[in-house]
Design goal:
Number of domains: 1
Radius of gyration: 23 Å
CATH architecture: 3-Layer(aba) Sandwich
CATH superfamily: Survival protein SurE-like phosphatase/nucleotidase
Distance between the termini: 53 Å
Length: 275
Amino acid sequence: MTVVVTNDDGVDSPGIHVLAALLRSLGHEPVVVAPARDMSGASAAIGKIELDVPTQVRRVTLPPPATDIPAYAVEGPPGLAALLAARRGIDDVEPSLVVSGINAGTNTGQAILHSGTVGAALTGASFGLSGLAVSLAVTDPMPWDAVEPWLAEALELLAAAPPATVLNVNVPATPRKGENGSLRWATLDRFGSFRVSVAERRESLVQLEYRSTDADLDPSSDTALVDAGIATVTAIEGIRAVPPEQIPFAEPRPAPEARLASGPRGEARAEPADG
């Protein structure tokens, strides 16, 4: 199976090199298609498309452990990389799956809205490809290879799921004893581990920082479980329309009244009222 491997940390990130190598060791055919530079926080953006300016895509050589794995650097965010791969914009690559990561830092809670790691997987799903976003809690040094058992399990879940399914996997830096290779299904936390806040405002400058939410966590949420040393998986989806009856404050609009109007050859026909 051809698997497109992308991320939001850029093609030079060690996390994507390890991810591609792990996928190869699991019997897949990885092709790395990733931003040429760090594009963290890009969500599912594809950037400005200029019809008279082609997107730059260049072939690159990856270091060990991803030696000899085909790789391309895209001048654009991870959503664009996933789009190009899905629409046969990378030579003759026809992927069956998009795997994004390994991100340095967890992507939990509804803050994943802003994650380029998650955004790339969701972009692939919009073109019918299943996707997997993989993130690892930060520690020094980063135990990239430790993701393997959860990666293998998540891929098995995707293989049994309908097309265009997206799974978000978060792995703790120090897993709880006995949890290796066993993903726990989790709900999305309200926020996530951290939120971007304004640290200082002066004249024309705004200094931002990451702050802990310090919120009471639902014990079944992804943030709480990862904090407890448990690797989590959450099924997610992109944009969808919300039926008005699911919005408590929405008043249903009355059905328009029919009126008679003249049709062809003077025949009467019903038309809805204007409005």
